[in-house]
User: Fold Si:ch73-261i21.5 from Sinocyclocheilus anshuiensis.
Amino acid sequence: MSAICLSVCLSVCLSVFPGYCDNCYLFYFTDNSDITVVCGTNRMDLQILLCPMYFYGYNESMVALNGQFGKPECRGTADWTVNPPVMKFQFYITEPYISICANKLTEIGSGLFSDFSSVQSVNISGVVNTQDPNAGTITYRQEMKYLFSCRYPLQYLVNNTEMSVLAIKDNNGSFISTLSMVLFEDYTYTTRLFIPPSGLMLKTRVFVEVRATNLTERFNVLLDRCYTTTSPYPGNSTSFNLFVGCNLDLQTIMGVNGEQQLARFSFETFRFVEHRNRTVSTFYLHCTTRLCESSFCRSLRQV
Assistant:
């Protein structure tokens, strides 16, 4: 039985794509490693080995995302330039691209930052499956399914000198490259703030904007906490909260927050007491930033 199947596998592989499946016997059984998933900032990329599909009697025209065989945008592209050859799928992480091929997008709440509020992640998942065009009541082909998912944490730490992600592991995705923080000189948010070497005068109002770009419109930006520290490293220095949740410092004014794909607030400059012997008191601004589904943002929005 094994010898016969192996012989068939070899003849099919070598006749269809000679030179590409030199080690065709390695694809006798399907395996989890047959699919590779890349969770990108703007899109998801899938690669699936073609040899196992041919072994079970399928080809690239019989494979689609979530059974959407009638939609060209839900079909993959065969790449014959690599050895072994693969089937490639890619779709952008925007509402139209996610839904057109019936991929699932779900929000998951949990709590690395539960001190401030419940934290969400978003999970984008689906299946690549095969179709037997000759099947009627029965089929002699084994159906093939490749499940995939990407989990994107929706809370990040952003500051005005660099952006840092907290606890992103494995093959999970990240939206951190879509986030930026910019300081402006007035409420119009048009002219960036210039900080001279001599520093700003005390009680100068600074206008802060945290913005998400190239992100699905499903999510808004919500600032959970913004604070300053005497060191670029938040965990190892004196800190002062500009706001935490709904608790604002008296000199902090909250603007847009949780309503759009940007959040804004302002505060007045001050000096850290421990810098009493310095001409200039230097501090660093950090914001714990959440990307939340727009309807969920409303329940968390600060008032």
